[in-house]
Design brief:
The complex is a heterodimer of chains A (about 150) and B (about 120).
Chain A: E1 6-13, H1 19-32, H2 37-58, E2 66-73, E3 77-84, H3 99-104, H4 112-119, E4 122-128, E5 132-140, H5 144-150
Helix pairs in contact in A: 1-2, 2-4
Chain B: E1 5-12, E2 15-24, H1 29-41, E3 46-57, H2 59-74, E4 78-82, H3 86-94, E5 103-104, H4 107-116
Parallel strand pairs in B: 2-3, 3-4, 4-5
Antiparallel strand pairs in B: 1-2
Helix pairs in contact in B: 1-2
The chains are: A alpha+beta (about 150), B alpha/beta (about 120).
């Protein structure tokens, strides 16, 4: 039987106030995909980080802009994309600094991308300057049922 | 909106206790930052952040811990973290915070670590 893909999209004004709404959306999709609770938590945090970056950096807190979160899952994996039309950035230009270096520089930023890469299985960027930016994140689905059977 | 957040500061034996409750994200982290800054401005450099009721933290909240720790230690103070629930502790540990911060089980233990030092 062919795998059936399910697609979900959330589009919200670019405000940190909506991060809670985005997290609720991601959690709901993760539950529909029957991911285990730990992976849903990881997904929730990764998408929060991606959207916070868009709201703060790509859009500079311009609430007239919109953040789009698109999720697609099948039996194997959940793919989630965060899409914006703001100022794109080249992640390759982000210097790999350690947390110790950030502390000594008294910097509070630079942790989000690091978290996303740690929490998700695959992370990629698609940037069309002046048009749109897409951050794609993939998480393999480890189902609750499978976990229980293993125990 | 399901985004409860509360923050409370108290002082015990000269040590500032900042208690976080609910969700710390990019929306609520500035309140946490202001609370830590207020203690520093008041000349209080020994701070415990009680996270027993903290359900969630993103990098915006973690960044607050990072941005103040050097300044506090330079002033012979410290910022210690206590009471992390496993899910939240996991987030701290992904970034290696356990190598930088003292993370204690509960507030009395964190208090003892301050008074012993």
């Amino acid at each position: 039987m062919a795998a059936i893909e399910r697609k979900f999209t959330l589009q919200v004004p670019s405000s940190t106030e909506n991060l809670a709404l985005i997290r609720d959306f991601v959690t709901s999709v993760g539950r529909q995909a029957r991911m285990n609770d730990d992976d849903i938590s990881n997904l929730e945090l990764a998408v929060d980080e991606a959207c916070a970056n868009v709201i703060e950096h790509a859009y500079g807190h311009d609430i007239s802009k919109e953040v789009i979160v698109r999720a697609i899952f099948d039996e194997e994996e959940l793919r989630i994309s965060v899409i914006d039309t703001g100022l794109g950035f080249d992640p390759a230009k982000i210097e790999p600094t350690t947390v110790e270096q950030l502390v000594s520089q008294r910097k509070s930023g630079g942790l989000g991308i690091r978290l996303i890469k740690s929490l998700m299985d695959v992370v990629s960027y698609e940037i069309i300057p002046g048009q749109k930016n897409e951050l794609h994140m993939t998480k393999k689905i480890r189902k609750e049922e499978a976990d229980q059977q293993d125990q | 909106m399901a985004n409860p957040f509360a923050i409370q500061t108290s002082i015990e034996d000269g040590i500032s206790i900042i208690t976080l409750e609910g969700f710390v994200d990019a929306h609520t982290a500035p309140q946490f930052e202001n609370a830590v800054q207020a203690e520093i401005d008041a000349g209080r450099h020994r701070i415990i952040v009680n996270c027993e009721k903290l359900n969630y933290i993103s990098s915006a909240g973690l960044g607050v811990f990072m941005s103040f720790i050097e300044e506090l230690r330079e002033r012979d103070g410290d910022l210690k973290i206590c009471g992390l629930v496993p899910k939240v502790k996991h987030t701290f540990e992904i970034l290696g915070f356990q190598d930088i911060f003292e993370m204690l089980d509960d507030q009395p233990t964190a208090m003892r670590h301050f008074t012993a030092s």
